[in-house]
Amino acid sequence: MYGSPLSKQSRKLLLLGSGELGKEVVLEAQRLGVETVAVDRYAGAPAMQVAHRFYVTDMLDGASIRKIIEEERPDYIVPEIEAIATDTLLELEREGFNVIPTARAAKLTMDREGIRRLAAETLGLPTAPYRFADTLDELKQAVKELGLPCVIKPIMSSSGKGQSVCRTEEEIEACWNYAMEGGRAKKQRIIVEGFISFDSEITLLTVRSVSGTAFCAPIGHVQKDGDYIESWQPHHMPPEQIEEAEHIARRITDELGGYGLYGVELFLTKDGVLFSEVSPRPHDTGMVTMATQDLSEFALHVRAILGYPIPSVRLLSPGASHTLKADRESGAFRIGGLEQALAVPNTQVRLFGKPETKVGRRMAVVLSTASDVEEARESAAKAAQALFIRYEE
Ligand SMILES: Nc1ncnc2c1ncn2[C@@H]1O[C@H](COP(=O)(O)OP(=O)(O)OP(=O)(O)O)[C@@H](O)[C@H]1O
Ligand SMILES: NCC(=O)N[C@@H]1O[C@H](COP(=O)([O-])[O-])[C@@H](O)[C@H]1O
Ligand SMILES: [Mg+2]
Is the pTM of this model over 0.90? Predict the structure, then answer.
């Protein structure tokens, strides 16, 4: 029970991170009459454009996020990106604030080491073989132990930033330098993983609510340079493989706990399903659910957070998503081609409204439905190809 936004009786949700995923969380929260506050490192972030209020700050600065939270006193603190001062979240939780899904989940998933050690070493879930390295020499040793090719990633990064595949010994140093530049935080540690030649990879959206744990239909996706290009739902899997995937997702999300939606990333291989990583929040590949499900991943996240029941999740139609990415840096640009893109049947376009482009930055997504996944993928790809960015500086 709560009153209207901006009243004394309101229910308040504060987002840490205000990108395209947060924008949808804010919209869903507002549908349920919740007051929303968006925080991110730059002004004009997508979720800020739709929230009741916003703050611009460095989210790795614990004192600064504490100040905002103490002033706002939100009912729910909802992390939307990995790189946040999570020790401050742990303290705030101890002081009685509600961090979604939990401060520990945010802390463990912020760095690849925390979540990988928990999944592989504590829970015994199958993963790619891995090592950690703090120096170039340690990296060389790790590569020797794991063999080539291998995948090198900063422990704190997302959307493939700083990530590369190392194929020869000569490439090790370049991969190291790339990882040093790409990490979000100042921390220099990296993870090296054995390269997995998977048949396909999926995200299993898993929602924990008062109604228990529910799984969405598996979402297949294709990634390029560590970042997602297209996704589709459902990804066809034999029932035993779905069971294996759900078993892994349940183990890791039960361990992390709390209420909210998780995106469990899994590799499907000939030797079984491997755990890759987990987001304790809506997942980029899950944007497809805005077209395919009765309740999108964002609606599910908000319902779970507010403590409302989720008796069922229905897949209404097969569907696909396809991203539009920028290829240079600019603060003056227009996105065109919507006339052609929207002429594709059963297709929608979401422009995120980011104020600047950067090389590889995701600016929009196309969502298509069809009677089967293949057709939906074709429609989404066709519409995405029709979209373009015209740079004016
Ligand atoms: N060990 C591996 N073997 C083969 N491919 C891999 C491996 N690790 C990662 N990849 C590929 O790179 C993609 C991105 O990796 P990962 O999910 O770890 O990075 P990320 O930066 O956290 O991405 P995001 O934030 O978008 O989830 C994976 O989805 C997969 O396609
Ligand atoms: N894979 C994680 C992911 O997709 N996160 C989404 O991208 C935004 C950052 O985008 P930006 O780097 O373009 O600002 C985040 O705020 C979140 O919405
Ligand atoms: Mg990932």
Answer: yes
